[in-house]
Amino acid sequence: MTTTSTPPAAPAPAAPAPARSATVGQTARRAVPWIVLGVIALLIAGLGLLLTGGGSSSGVALDAGNAGPVGGKAVAQVLRGQGVDVRTATTLEEAQAAAPDATVLVYDPAGNLPADGYRALADTAPALVVIEPDFRTLQEVAPGVRAAGAPEGASSAGCDLPAAQRAGRIDPRPTSTTEGSSLPGTFDVDGDAVACFTDGGGGASLVRTTYQGADLTLVGSAALLMNDGVDRQGNAALALGVLGEHRTLVWYLPGLVDRPVTGPADIAALTPGWVTPVLLLGVVVFLAAAVWRGRRFGPLVVENLPVVVRADETREGRARLYQRSSARLRAVDALRIGAIGRLARTAGLPRTATVDEVVLAVAALTGRDRPTVRRILIDDLPATDRDLLALSDALSALERDTAAAVSPTSGRPLPPTGRMDS
């Protein structure tokens, strides 16, 4: 008889596995914190640029070697072309050394030069030109001249000074690129001082007077001499006329060396301007990262994990932790607590029995003296790992002896337990 075997059925096609790749929405949600941090960083950087002036005032303001918008290189070059010996100075000693028979230009927006510095210059130089003097400087060099606010616009000479007459009309206002680099102003004049270029508000952009025998010219706006403003109307003529009266011009920008020492240096004066914005940015980024990574989504939830941990693994793991930290007392306490509980149950004592009662019962069952049992269960303190192992062996032996004593095959009578047997 011929039998035919049925071919095995073809296996059913496996169901497609679910996709594990992150979707576009998930990727976008994960990128949101980084985008927020980037926006915050850009805002802080922009704020830092605004606070430090950004790149609008490139170089040192009114420096004779600065070709940027706020520099004074154009005026210095033209003066040199007319035969004027232009010498730069950054300290009072340098300015005094070059000052005899010279005009000294002083531009000190930071207030580094003290009052006695102006007196020293006036004793040496025949002419001083002070650009944008502050209140303290005006009190020293020209008590009859007061600050009168920013210039309102272009103004005519209005005085008999030859340099002002040749200039005719000036515009002392800063340009869009030099705005914020200086604090232009005008003056109110009392007394014999000569006021020139008075605007509609009554403020003069230039004042000529004397200071300790030297000719003193006060210029209210540094924009008249800056590269980006000297070419407007008669600004260049005025600058060349005021600064070119003598064959030598000392271009003096006081620095920190000229500042009087009254105490320890201020850390703000010793650090670059970008340090503060960078520190603020770092603090903001740190706080944002702390809030982002340290946030909680709600109360903790207890979840039963589908894992069964064997008791011996737990015991061994805890023993290794005790061994690694040399916590012998904690280890022996754990051993003794478990041993005392088991000994109490073996001896038939209630759960409320004290350790002393367990010691008495175990000593009576095993025939050992009570001090020995008490040392094993309470008093002995292991000083080394060897002592701990010996104590562990003693506890195990004590439990074995107790179990053997209460075993029905031992033939030893049980001691009274304090319980009433029915």
From TrEMBL:
Domain DUF4350: 66-243
Keyword line: Membrane, Transmembrane, Transmembrane helix
Coiled coil feature spans: none
Transmembrane parts of this sequence: 31-51, 274-292
UniProt keyword Transmembrane, yes or no: yes
Domain of life: Bacteria
Region entry Disordered, spans: 1-23, 401-422
The keyword Membrane is annotated on this UniProt entry: yes
Any Pfam family matching the protein: DUF4350
The protein's name in its UniProt record: DUF4350 domain-containing protein
Organism: Leifsonia williamsii
